[in-house]
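lol ok so funny story. i was supposed to be doing the assay writeup but got distracted and ended up predicting the structure for this chain instead. priorities right. anyway since i did it might as well share w the group, maybe its usefull for someone
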Amino acid sequence: MKAIVCTKYGPPDVLQLKEVEKPVPRKNEVCIKIFATSVTASDCIVRGFKLPVWHPMGLMMGLVLGFRKPRNPILGMVLAGEVESAGIDVKSFKKGDQVYGWTIKSPIKIRFGTYAEYKCLPENSVIALKPSNATYEEAAAVPYGGLLALHFLKKGIIHSGQKVLIYWASGSIGSSAVQLAKYYGAEVTGVCSTKNLELVRSLGADRVIDYTKEDITNKGELYDYILDAVRKSKSSKLKLQCKNALTPNGKYISVDDGSPKAPVENLILLKELVESGHLKPVIDRSYPLGQMVEAHRYVDKGHKKGNVVITV
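and the output, tada:
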């Protein structure tokens, strides 16, 4: 089968299209023929090993993934495809099922391997039937941002009537968070750059703030919950101001806080929300598998809107 192989950490050019052996499912696994995957910010961090080994997260990353090179040379954590075969013990899926999922069940249960034509996963992985009204490309744009946004919103105990601010509301996590917060009945303010204002409005944000032009302190608004959907390594004047715009019992949570877990129930909920129209996948660009290097270069720039999808 064709796969993108990463034999060492480094810039996007370390990724190579190669022929590798097709995996065979064990008795508790399904073999999924992948039609679409995505390039996430986390994929780029792994590919470049962008955390120093003396940093606590860098040390953990090295222990889990490998210090000199990835133990699994095929990266990728998101998939959408069709079950080609199933092991004899598999009960939940059958040949022909259209599925989507995320290969990371917890910070210590990390699997990659979706930058390929086939992937075998245990039946109890974070995989579910894909939304019936979504293409494979659209389905591949849901798990990463959707699961992380859902985790952090639940961490903030979001509920109806709250005033919620989403910083970097145009990214994969932020664009999902805006829609999910609206689903839970919150009043949502989205923060993004000028070129993304209309996108964030179209996702249902009640207000949008242009972080390149506006000063949040002049608005006098206080928020019950602020989700910082851009990593702590990036900052701006407005981002710093956000931390001072909380109500007395308000919560400020960054996507760098804690170790997200993704129960399959959350993936099933996302499926239902896509089918009911409450969650719309946002795709910035789509590349074929053979243009993975170009896709990583684009994501590395840090300006993508929603998701970058790979067709396999």
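The CA atoms of residues 164 and 225 lie 5 Å apart. DSSP finds nine helices and 14 strands in the chain.
back to the writeup now i swear
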